[in-house]
Amino acid sequence: MLPTPVAVDSKLPWVGTTIFTVMSKLATDYGAINLSQGFPDFQAEPALFEATLRAMQEGRNQYPPMAGVSELRTAIADKVEALYGARYDVDQEITVTAGATQAIFTAIAAFVRGGDEVIVFEPVYDSYVPAIETVGGRAVYAQLEFPDYRPDWNQVRSLITPRTRMIIINSPHNPTGSLLDGEDLAVLAELTSDTDIVLLSDEVYEHIVFDGARHASLAGHRELASRSIVVSSFGKTYHITGWKIGYVLGAAELMTEFRKVHQFNVFTVNTPCQLGIAEYMQLASRHLGLAAFYQQKRDFFREQMKGSRFELLPCRGTYFQLARYAGISELSDREFARWMTCEAGVAVIPVSVFYRDGRDDRVVRFCFAKQDATLVAAGEKLRRL
Ligand code: PMP
Ligand code: GLN
């Protein structure tokens, strides 16, 4: 190990390694079934790989345009219009990003200045607050209350100040699986009208909503769309989390600012994967079928959990299932997640990591984006606890 003479003076003194990396490593070290970090354990379709390989072989291997190849931006514009009825301009209002994480970081860096306040909802996805603090902003916390995890808009109203620069929303919500609906968007529109608040809407699970619900995209709400950066990720939609490709939508004036940062952050995203996805997306059933596909997985996993002592919470979207374990153990959720991984053979995510003060409702998160055989094997272990 190389010693450094530098006094580091961390910008993020309270931040360690992300829980997803920690739990996946622990799962590997202990040979546990990994239902912690959110990724599928099954393959994407060969047609996606073939389209990507063809792009490589045809020589599409140099820098694409900074905002992404036009084939992919056009496919995104078409999809968004078909689903949400809004036509984003291919040249000025859509940018391809290196996954949603980069999109979120870049949007925050583009709009949040030192001392600005950004409202987030707890439990909060783990990348938002470190991004806010890296650029000198201050996170202000609204609560999604256990067990329904619905926003309290009166609380949000009370948190808005002249310093509020951004509100970050996430629906379908990770880790809770809750959804915002049209009424939520109407209140949000009322709360933000006549302000300079930018909305950052993390919609990476836009295609994974259950029981006939419709995803309420900010892209589909004209007033909100005009002040929003909407983020999505192909990793979730096409079972390729390791490709790290997503995109953002936003009004041209907002997108101009986003791109000022994006071009010096990643500049652009690898060409052949963009072209492969653009071709693969042409068949709309590939994203439209995702809700039914994951609803079947959700129900199958819940079936496996029957007869266990876990208490399952509602799951209206995403590929995560929350469960209370108070009937099994009195350990804190972090200790319980560790024990589950090391002793019980199933790795999970403790939900308290998504709270600034470590609030612990004795709830853990399971990822059910897994082959049925994996869910059966996990169920056998879970029912024994
Ligand atoms: N936001 C949420 C809510 C997520 O769950 C994830 C990843 N699972 C991301 C952002 C990051 O997506 P990506 O892998 O495309 O960076
Ligand atoms: N979003 C994924 C999850 O919630 C993890 C992504 C990551 O590891 N950064 O599990």
From TrEMBL:
This is Methionine aminotransferase, PLP-dependent. Its EC number is 2.6.1.-. One of its GO terms (cellular component) is cytoplasm. It is an enzyme of class 2 (transferase). Residues 33-373 form the Aminotransferase class I/classII large domain. Belongs to the class-I pyridoxal-phosphate-dependent aminotransferase family. The keyword Transferase applies. Pfam families: Aminotran_1_2. Its cofactor is pyridoxal 5'-phosphate. Signal peptide: none annotated. The gene is ybdL. Gene3D superfamilies: Aspartate Aminotransferase, domain 1, Type I PLP-dependent aspartate aminotransferase-like (Major domain). CDD domains: AAT_like.
